[in-house]
Amino acid sequence: MQSCKLLLLFSLANFMVIGNGQQYSTEIKALLQAIQTKVQALETKLTALDTKQTASSQRVEIKLNELSQVFNQSQTQCSRPTTPAVYPLSSSILSGAAGGKLRLKVSGRNFQDLDNGFGTTDPYFELFLSTDGGATEAKLLKSDTVSDKENPDWGQVIEVDFNRRENQWLRFNVWDEDHLRDDDRVGSVWINLADYVDKGQVAFGLLDKIDSGYLIIHASDQPIPNIPVVPGKVPGAPAPPTPPRPQSLRFKLSASDLPTKDDVGFIPGNSDPYVVIYKKKGLDGGETEIARSGTVASTRTPMWGDIFTIPVEKNSEDTRLVFRIYDEDNLRVDSKLGVAYIEIADIAAKGTIFSHPLIKKGILTITKV
């Protein structure tokens, strides 16, 4: 707009020079020449400014287009269905991980000939999953039968969904297949899934019925550990050499991180816990009370001084001890604090001190004396 005004002034001044003769021609020409120079300089600046603004607008538009593309891509990726993580157990990323799909294989060693020399051992196993300390189980699968093998290697890959937030236990129940009579039970073993993941890629599970038989559970992408078969011993640190089966179990009990039932408003209270021990035969058998501790006052970490002596019968396989912890209350019914189901054979096979998670919350520790 300014340049148009200057051009108009230049034209008017030129017209005045032509109309009034030559007396002002020299001064006016010089003035008009100066005005024309300024107008050209101003037009150059305006042109450069317009070019700069256009380039800036183009850059802003390009940036906006790039951001729009990134946003659209992120929306597309977020809308895709996710698949669960699949980790072989050889991957160290599983240590401490919240969950994933485990792929594993199973082998057996030192299985006894249950046919007394008149037949062969044809083993297979059933796999069960428990998330409540063994109170209930869900059958996951039945393996193939390996013919005439006392040291079987089952080739099938087992997939298990691992969830650290659940108290997951696997129970392997091994049988000797017999076509002429009922299948013979070789033995069973419990494996804590989180403990198995955290402590390495191989677990050795001592079978409860025979003195030297054990299972090897390992990652499906790893070879079977080349370990010599030594009668009467279980390899690896997780399981010590098989001890003679005791006539009885003597132990003390303690617990930690028990829930509280005597809270007053927002003020947490303490419980007065005691434990009752029951014996349970099989999953469907009833519970028989066999021992009861004294009460420890006002604590979430009781250490009971009682020494419990539990007879171990010869046919104790599939017999469990049920530990039920209560909060003693003189004014109302005693509250339940926790429960654990542990097989007698598993207690006998463990070391001097071992811990077992209580259902929902807390840890029960058994110390042999």
Automatic annotation (TrEMBL):
Gene3D superfamilies: C2 domain. Residues 83-206, 230-358 form the C2 domain. GO terms for cellular component: membrane. Pfam families: C2. Keywords: Calcium, Metal-binding, Signal. It comes from the Eukaryota. Residues 1-21 form the signal peptide. One of its GO terms (molecular function) is calcium ion binding. InterPro entries: C2_dom, C2_domain_sf. PANTHER family: C2 DOMAIN-CONTAINING PROTEIN, MULTIPLE C2 AND TRANSMEMBRANE DOMAIN-CONTAINING PROTEIN. This is Copine-5. It comes from Folsomia candida.
